Amino acid sequence: MTVQAKRLLKCEEWGKLRVGDGLELSTYDELGSILAAWKSKTWEAADGYFDVLPNAIVPKFWSGILETKQLILEVSPIGSSRIDNNLKRRLDINLSMMLASAMSSQSVVAGQALLSSDGGRYEALLEVFCNDLHLARRRQIIRRYISEVDTLPSPRGRISFPSQCYESIRRPGQFASEWVSLTEDVPEYRIFKKVLLRYRSRCSSRIRGRIDLCLSELDAVDVTGDHRLEWAKVRADRLPQIYHSLLKQSRILLNEEGVGVFAGDRLATAEIVFTSRLFEQFVAKEFTWLAPLKDLYANIQNRGFFACQRDDGKDSFELIPDVRLTNKKGQTKLIVDTKWKFLEMNKRNFGISRNDVYQILVYASRFNCSNVVLLYPDVTADTGEVGFLRTFSANFEHNKICVHIAKIPVLADSLLPTRNFLEQLMLKLS
Fold first, then answer.
1. pLDDT tens digit sequence for 283-333
2. Which of 10, 135, 236, 316 sits at 20 to 30 Å (Cα–Cα) from 49?
3. What does the pLDDT look like over 74-105, one tens digit per residue?
4. Could you give the 3-state DSSP secondary structure of residue 95?
C-alpha cells in the first residue's frame, strides 16, 4: 500500500491563499481542512488568525507549521519573503529570543515537522535565563535556615548535650556546638544550577561566559542529586514573580523543548507561534523593565477605561492600550500600541490603517497624553538593523498630539539594538 505524501504549501503572514484550479488551494475542502486543523491543534478561534474571504483565506498573527488532513501549511513571519537568507536567519534567531523572553507562553505545540536549525532557541533561552537569574539575585537572594552541628575551638550558638560531655573528655578545650545558619543551597538554586551545567557545553563562548558568571554565584549550591526530586521541595508561595519565570524556563530547558521558527532541515516538535501576541508580550516586558529609569510605572493593558457613556449612565467602548506609562501622580506620559503588521514604506502614510490612527488618537484624548506611539516590527533590509521613527502631529482644540510611527529593529545580530531602541524611545518621548 502506497502512502501519498501531503503537499507542502508555503506562504507568509497576510499572504492570500486563493481557491481554484492552478491556485494555492485546489478546493474549498482544503480551505476547510485548514480551519478544522487550527481549531483542533490550538483551541483558538479561527477568525482571530485567518481572514476568510469568498475565494481565499489569509493567515495572520501566527507563524509555524500547521498539518491538516490534506496538506501541510507553513506560514513564515511578515516580511520574510523580502529579505535574503542571512537576514532571515537573524529574524529567526531574534524571534526565537523574543519567544524565549516571553517564556514560550505565546506558542502551542502542533506535531512533528521539518524545522529550522538556525533559530538558536537554546542559546536564546540560556541568554534570557542568565539575564533573569542575575536580575533575580540582585533583587532577592533565596536562603533557608538550617541547623548545623560541629565541634569548634570556641562555642557557637548553644552547647549540645550530652555531646559536650564526651568532647570534654576526648578533646578538652573543644565545644560541641549547635547553631542555626542561612544557606543558599536550596531546591530552586539546585534546579537553576542543573540547567546551567547541562547546557554550558552546548553554547557558544559568548553564552558560556554568561553561564560561568552565574555558576560562580551558585558555587555553594550542591547539584549531586536528581533535579527531578527537587521540584516537590520548591516553596513557590514565597517566591517573587521573577523566580516563577525562572522555574518555568527551567522546565522548558530540562525537558529539551524549543526549536527554530522557519521550516528547514530538522525534524522536531513544531510550534505555532502567535506572533502578534508574542510581539505584544515582549514589548510589554521591556517597558516594564525600562519604566523605572524615568520614575514611571508601566500599565500593561489596564482595563476599566471607556470612550463613551450611554444615556443610562453605563460605560461603553472600553479602551485598553497595550502599554501606558504613568508618573507618580497618575498622569499618562506615553502610550504605546503594538501592531504586528508590515508597513509599505513606499506608500503614502506607509500604508498604515486609518483605524489604527483613529484608535491611538482616541487613547491620546481619553488619557490626556500628548505623545502616542504606533509600534511595528522593522523587517526591512534598509532599516531592520537600526529601526525607524517618524512623527505626525495633530491639533485638537488647541492641544497638540504627536503620533510617532516607530519600527523596532528585528534584523540586528541580537536583541540589544531592539532594547536600546525602546529605551531611547521612552527617554525621548516621556
1. 998 999 899 989 999 999 888 888 888 888 888 888 899 999 999 999 999
2. 316
3. 888 999 889 998 898 888 878 877 876 665 55
4. helix
Instruction: Note whether 71 and 33 are within 8 A (CB).
Output: yes
Strand 371-378 to 332-338 pairing = parallel
With a CB cutoff of 8 Å and minimum separation 6, the contacts of 251 are none
| Host H or E run for residue 158 | strand 158-159
Alpha helices in 2-120 (DSSP H): 28-42, 85-101
Strand partners, 394: 401
Element (H, E) at 375: strand 371-378
How far apart (Å, rounded) are the C-alpha atoms in residues 395 and 416? Answer: 36
328-382 tens-digit pLDDT = 999 999 999 999 999 988 888 899 999 999 999 999 999 999 999 999 999 999 9
Instruction: Take residue 160 and report the three cell numbers written for it.
Output: 549540645
- Residue 342 in contact with residue 375, Cβ under 8 Å? no
SS3 assignment, position 323: strand
DSSP 386-400: T-EEEEEEEEETTEE
